[in-house]
Sequence to fold (101 residues):
Amino acid sequence: MKSALLTALLLCLPAMAGRLPRSAAEVMAFKRSVPCPATGKPELRCFGYQVDHATPLCAGGSDTRDNMQWLTIEEHRMKTRSDVRFCRQIRKENAKPKALM
Fold:
């Protein structure tokens, strides 16, 4: 049993490479504490909406409830595209050699 779990974890590692760790517990806590815009109730499923990090993790945003928000699926898709471009730019700038003083 342990070897099957270890194998599954190892198979997931390449897919997880480059991603920042996320807390499923924080997302669940957010969903339980912040009302779904569609129903006005705190729910685990909010049809038509997704949880988003207001400040992207790659830009220093925290993986906590206070940095999460509900967005419609389309809003989330558009914001994710923008965040990906922004984060690529950050990585690109951080990879440039610094000029000597």
Observations:
- The beta strands are 49-53, 68-72.
- Residues 4-17 have pLDDT under 50 and may be disordered.
- DSSP finds three helices and two strands in the chain.
